[in-house]
Design brief:
With 121 residues, this protein is α/β, with parallel strands linked by helices. The chain has one domain: Transcription Regulator spoIIAA (2-Layer Sandwich). It is 36% helix and 28% strand. The chain is built from 4 helices and 4 strands. The protein has helices at 33-44, 66-82, 93-102, 105-109, and strands spanning 10-16, 19-28, 53-64, 85-89. Strand 2, helix 1 (33-44) and strand 3 form a beta-alpha-beta unit. Helix 1 (33-44) runs parallel beside helix 2. Residues 117-121 have low confidence and may be disordered.
Length: 121
Amino acid sequence: MTTTPPTEFTVAARREQATLVVRVGGELDYDTSEEFVDEVVRHLTAARTPPAAVRLDFGALTWIDSSGLSALLMIHRRTSALGATLHLDDRPEILERLLHVTNVLDHLTAPVAGTDLTDLV
């Protein structure tokens, strides 16, 4: 039996006006979740003004486990505290399945209370 080596984890963030865009690639699991949260939080707090939205792009994600889900919940907690709405973009099947089984998609992506959705368009 052959096994494939784990895909290297990558996380890259950039600020586009009032939106923080974070591209996630590889395996988001026990070994990489802390790095992921640290990188997102670092960019959330880097600018004088917090972003109005945070877009997590999972187009290159190959795996996610319960630690990765926990990281998403921690990021949601931080974005909500800043008044930013979290978006989970380009979700692969593995992430869709995890979000469906745990029933947290609506929780993670709900607009922050008091947010005027027209401001985000």
